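Notebook, p. 212. Picked up where the previous page left off. The plan for this session was modest: take the two constructs that came back from the sequencing core last week, fold each one, and keep the raw output in the notebook itself so nobody has to go hunting through shared drives later. Recording the first one now, exactly as returned: residue sequence, then the C-alpha cell string.
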Amino acid sequence: MRPPVEAQSIRELARGLSRIAREPVRIYLTGGATAVLEGWRRSTIDVDLRFEPDADELMRELPALKERLGVNIELASPPDFIPELPGWRERSPFVFHEGNVAVHHFDLYSQALSKIERGFTHDLQDLKAMIEHGFVEPSTLRGLFNAIEPELYRYPAIDPTAFRAKIERALR
C-alpha cells in the first residue's frame, strides 16, 4: 500500500512529466488531486488524470514516475463515467505550468456530476466543498445534467431517473 498523496507529490508528478514532454500537453486532474490542490482535502489515495493530446512518451513514463514518487496514478476522468458536458474544456481551471505541461483541474461540474452518480460519502463531501468554494453552482449543475441526460443511454449502468434523484438529494 502506498502512502497518501499530498500536493507536493502531485506537483512533482507534473514536474517529472514536463521533463519528457516534447510538445505542449494539458494534464487534467480529477477527484482527490483536485481536492488536495484546492485545499479541501489534505491527501488522496491516487492521482486521476487525463492527457490532451494523448502523448505516448508521457504514458510510457508513468510506471517509472509512479514507482519513483510512490504514488498511485489512474488514467481516469469524468467522461469515463458520464457523458462529456458541453464546454468542459473552457470550464477546466488552469492550476500551474511546468515546462510543456499545463496542469488544469478537469471541469468541476463534470467532476461534481461524476461524484454524485458514484455517491460515496467522500464524493458528496467533495461536492459540498465545491459548492462552498464557489466552483459549482447548483442551478448550473442541474442545467448541465439536463444537457447530457439524452446521452445517458450510452452509459447503461446509469439509470437517468435515479441519477436525477441523486442530484436532487445531494443538492438539498
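Okay, moving on. Second construct, recorded in the same format:
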Amino acid sequence: MIVNHKLLIILLLLTGFVFAQERSESIKIVGDSLIGKVVNGESIREVHGHVVLTQGNVTITCDHAIQYIAKNNAKLKGNVIVRQDSLTITTEEGFYFGDRRVTKSTAGIILDDRKIVLTADSGEYFFNEDKAIFQSDVTLFDSLTIMFADQLIYLRDDDRSIATGNVKIIDENSVITADSLDHYRNTKTSFADGHVKIISLENNTSIYSNHLEDYSEEKYTLINVNPVLVQLDSIYNEEGELEIDTLMISAKIMEAFRDTANVFKATDSVKIIRGTFASVNDYTLYLRDDDIIITEKVNEDAAQPILWYENSQLTGDSITIYIEEKRIKRLDVVNNAFMLSQSKLYPERFDQTSSKDIKISFKNNKIHQAKFLGTVHSIYYLYEDNEVNGLTKFSAINATIIFEDNEVSEVRLYGSPTSEYYPEKQVVGDEKSFTLPKFRFFNNRPNRKELIKLIW
C-alpha cells in the first residue's frame, strides 16, 4: 500500500512537471512600444510597431498585438505573417493560442507551404498536428489543379486535402464537382462522394455518380454508384442541318483506362442510347480513340447483349459497333446471331433471320445491307404497293439482304438455298406462328427519360 502511495505521488509530480513544461513555453512578444494594463482583473500587454511574436520555431510579425499573459494568447492586427520553416500564413487580423499552438483568423487567410497555396474567409492552423482547417470560399492551388470548397482540411504530413461542400476541382483536362472530395497530392489519388460530376474538357463528356475513385498515376478511374455517362455531339442530318446527338450510358460500374489507349468500360445492367440506337447488356467496352463500341456476354450462361436500331433488333454473343464521323457505319454480330425488323405499317409482322454471324453496313444513317454468315434461316414478309402479300421462308449457308428504308427489298442466297412461299390467306391473323426457334421480341428498350432519372 505504501508503494502504491509513493507511485501515486510520483505520477502526480510527473504530471505537474509535464504540465509545467507545456506551460513554460510562453509566447514572447517584442515591438517598438509596449504598454502594460490590467483589464477585468487580467494582465495584458499591448505592443505596437514592428511586432515580433515567437514560440519555439513559430515566428509571427504584425503591426499591433495584444498579449493575454495568463492565457498565453495574443490577438494580432495588421499585416499578420506567421512562419514556421517552409510554411507561411498571412492575414490582416487573427489570434495565436500559445498553449495549443494554434493560429486562427476570420478576416481572410492565406497559407503557403511551397507545395500548395490555400485561401479562405476564415481558417485555423494547428502547428502540433501540421493541420489546417479552412472555411468559407476555400480555394486550393497547386502546380496542376485548382480546388474550391466550403470547407477544407489540409494534412501537411500526408499531403492530403479533405474538402466538403460544393467541391470543385479543375485541371487542364477535366472538372470534377462533388459534395466531398478526399485528395492525396503525393499519389495523385482522389475519392469523391455525393452528387459527383466529371466533365471532360477534351470530348464534351460528363459522368454523373455518387462515388468516384481516381488514380491519376495509374491513369485509372472507377465510378461505381449509379453512374451515368452523357456525351454531347453535333452532326449534320440528311438535309444538311446541324443536330445535337447525345450518347448516354448507364451501368452499375464504370471504369476509365487512360494508359496506352483511351478505353471506357461499363459492366452490369448496362444501358446505352444514341439517337435511334439503343442497347441493353452486361458488358460494354468503348474504345474512344477508335470510335468502337463492343458489347459481349459475360459468360456462357449470361444473357446476350440486345441492340436496337430504328425498327430492328439484334442479339448475339458479341456485338461490335464501328462509328465514323459520329455515325454508325458498320456493325458485327458474332455467334448465335439473330436479327428481326418490325414492319412500320404492320407492327404484328417481323422479318427474322438467324445465323452464326451477321455483318451490317449503313448508308445515310440507315441499314443498307446485312450479310448473314453460317447456317442461315429466315422469314420475311412480302408487300406490293404497301399491301401485304404473304411471306417467304428460306435457308442457306450464307445470305445477303438489301434494305430500303429499313425494310427488306432484296434477298440473295448462297450455298444450298431452299425457299418456301406462303400466300397471304395462310398468313393473315396467324403471324405469331411464323417465327424462327430463336425468335424473341424484347420490350425493355431503354429510353432517354429513363436514364436521365438515374442522374443523382
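Notes on construct two before I forget. The longest strand covers residues 366-384.
Flagging for discussion at group meeting.
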